[in-house]
Structures are given as structure tokens and as C-alpha cells.
Amino acid sequence: MLFTITGKHIDITEAIKTHAEEKTAKLPKYYNSINQIEVIIDGNPGGGTTSNNIEVEIIARAEHSNVFIATETGEDAYKCIDIAVHKLERQLKRKKTRQRDNKHTAGPEAERESS
Length: 115
Hints:
alpha+beta
């Protein structure tokens, strides 16, 4: 799995990088076909000079052109990463259950019709 982290208007410390990598490493547990995760941390969202908010965007790319995106804005980068990962977990769980539910098995009605 390819992991990239990018900082816009902010320096990415080693601690932030390892925190983001540890949190996003468990995402394939929820959806196995993830092959790339990109974390973008913007230190100056909206271009305002007075705000000290940080925007975190996590993009998870999977097979068959499936793309999952979660964003969070706040004052603490670590909390934003945690919340964005949680949002992605929910998206991935929902996608996985929908895939599983779409697999229909032949029931007793299908057997009667074919006879």
C-alpha cells in the first residue's frame, strides 16, 4: 500500500507523519482493495491570515476506480487526522456491506421456477 503525506502552508513533523501513517494503516482492514492512501494537511485553509485552523483531507484509492475522501477542519492536526480516519472507516464499512448484500443466493423460489 502506497502512503503519501503532503503539507500545504505547514511543515510536516515526523510525529505527525507517523501518527497519520499508524492511523491509516488499519484502513485496509475495513476494505481490502485499498492500494493508495494520501493525506493532505493544509495549515491555512481558505487563505485567511487570522485563522489558525488546520484542514486534513484523507484520500483512499481502491481498485476499480473507487475513491473515498474524508475531510476535517480544526485546531489540532492530530484530532483532525483521528476524526477523518473515523469518517473513512464508516465509508469503507458501508461500501463493504453494500458489496456483500448485493451478492444474492438462489433461494427456494428460484429452484421452483427452474423446475
